[in-house]
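hey so u asked for the seq, here:
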Amino acid sequence: MAHKRKIRVGIIYGGRSGEHEVSLASATSVMANLDSDTYEAIPIAITKDGSWLLGTKPQRLLAAERGSNAPSHDEETEPSRAVTLTGDPRLRRLIPVEQGEDLGNAGALDVIFPVLHGTYGEDGALQGLLEMANVPYVGCGVLGSALGMDKEKMKMIFQRVGLPVGDYLVYRRSAWERAPEPILDAIEQRLGYPNFVKPVNLGSSVGVNKAHDRTELLHFINEAAEYDRKIIIEKGIDCREVECAALGNDEPLVSVVGEVISSNEFYDYRAKYIDNKSQVIIPAGIPQVTAEEVRRQAALAFQSLDLSGLARVDFFLERGTNQVYINEVNTMPGFTSISMYPKLWEASGLPYKELIDRLIELAIERHADRQRNRTSL
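ran it, structure tokens below
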């Protein structure tokens, strides 16, 4: 009896982003939990300078970036080879950058799981490349990824479909550098203190700060402007932070609601990835009617942004009023086994390994549906 061929899954990770290290942790977890009887994992590292390397596992890339030797258990990994995606959409494969190399079957891919967070991975840039190469891939398409990364456009669409959004202002870096004082005045008059300063196109709370006065506001806008050409300033809300996970294509399922209790003044990068003191409560201790409203808004947000595959949807629950405000979506949330997105599905009855299976199925389903589109008259 012939053995069924394994599905070759390209795990792309790393990337040119401030969330590079977070991606390495997520990719390590995904690769460790892929069913080896069903899938063959093909690790594809993207270095901080943008080079693509076939055969480099996350532990080895991290060791190389830190200037140390790779872990001993990784010594048998095949040599890293610089690769790119072929421009022929009929092949769905990687090709070597160096002439004369032959990747053989190592370059053939059935589906790609881009475990990339932030710019050049989660913002539609990579998704456009994969569309051109005609490779099925996990997660949102070009438009959904771009909207999910751009906090300004995301909030505009949320408001258009009637989702409650906290007050905010957005400025371009060029306007800020030209005339900062009038901008500071406008923020103080409209939003007051405290407020939150963020780069518009970034995630994992990179470059996010809470300003309590004008001096801090000035400093934090300058910092956010180092990461992006657009800066968003959001009105501070005395709130609890709750999240839920969406999974699907046209008709998403939504998980139970979880709550994050930060170890710091707010859920910043240190609280998320360094301190390990923040608490996650699943399910959140909120009224059932409030949980259902959060889940309803999550499904509407997913559909209004034309998302697919997966997204984590984050909300503020105002203390005293229980008013729900949608904050943002994350189209490739942290994906370690202890990350919020997998934990929410685990609590909803979908274990981590089965979640990965379902995401790959959704990627292949979405690609097949896209192939039905006519591309010529």
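The chain has three domains: 7-137, 148-164+238-369, 168-235. Residues 307 and 330 are 10 Å apart (CA to CA).
lmk if thats what u needed
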